[in-house]
Amino acid sequence: MIRIGANPICWSNDDMIEIGGNISLEQCLSEASEIGIEGMELGNKFPKTAEALKSKLAEYGMVFISGWYSTFLLERDAEAEFEAAQEALALRKGAGAEVLIVCECTRTVHGVKEAPLSRRPVMTDAEWDAFLPRMTRFAELVKDYGLQLVYHHHMGTVVQTEPEIDRLMAGTGPAVKLLLDTGHATWGGADPVRLARLYRDRIGHFHAKDVREDVRAKSEASDWSFLDSVLEGVYTQPGDGKVDYVSVFREIPDYSGWVVIEAEQDPEKANPKQYVTMGFANLNRFLKEAGLK
């Protein structure tokens, strides 16, 4: 079964809290519920305890999906990471999540507005050799805890490009699943259709956002930062950019889980309710056309 969820980043940003900072949690949740969203990922305005989080979402007829967790496995081993993750794990499991969304954030630049993407970290072979078994072991510990680890490839981080995604998947064990993000894949130079086909059996979560090619070209030509690119509109809702969603979905006919709208934009330029409504309608149409709904 596929359910369509959303990330509150469509309303207000976590990396740069001024973006949509004036939008209340209640506005976000009421609009998401009215649109037909069934579940939400975590945002900085959400309650900080599992019971309060579940209760708040239930007020609007929604459930908790999961939330981002930053790993630092280039700096510490899996056991140390697991110890550091206890609070995040408890919140997610206690609030009803089934997956833990992780991204390796050692030296990341995606949250630094002044840092151009050309300065993003690239792992050495020695770092890959340390990182891959640590990620596998961390995922195994998380699985024993009762959650499925899904890895979020992301612009500005050590796993951004298609070769890096391939190396991650080839070098980690089955406890590591892929969070396929169509927007980050496309902007990072990967083909989301190829990724879906190649890793269909290991895709454990799905983030749906689209890419405006003209803004991406300007970002790359001028070496913008991730956040400046977002503010200029590099991302948009599914169906409003270049991603061929029907072809992506046709490659994962057995996928069961969440498809999460996670298209961060400046709400002053792109009204969140209007744009998420459009993305929701487009996703439903694409999923039906691909035979997944």
TrEMBL record:
Assigned keywords, A-Z: Lyase
InterPro entries: IolE/MocC (IPR030823), IolE/XylAMocC-like (IPR050312), Xyl_isomerase-like_sf (IPR036237), Xyl_isomerase-like_TIM-brl (IPR013022)
EC number: 4.2.1.44
Enzyme class: lyase
SUPFAM superfamilies, per database record: Xylose isomerase-like
Molecular function per GO: myo-inosose-2 dehydratase activity
Entry-linked Gene3D superfamilies: Divalent-metal-dependent TIM barrel enzymes (3.20.20.150)
Entry annotated with the keyword Lyase: yes
Pfam families given in the database record: AP_endonuc_2
Every Xylose isomerase-like TIM barrel domain range: 30-270
Superkingdom, taxonomy of origin: Bacteria
Entries under PANTHER family matching the protein: HYDROXYPYRUVATE ISOMERASE, INOSOSE DEHYDRATASE
NCBIfam families assigned: myo_inos_iolE (TIGR04379)
Protein name in the entry: Inosose dehydratase
Organism from which the protein derives: Hartmannibacter diazotrophicus
Gene: iolE_3
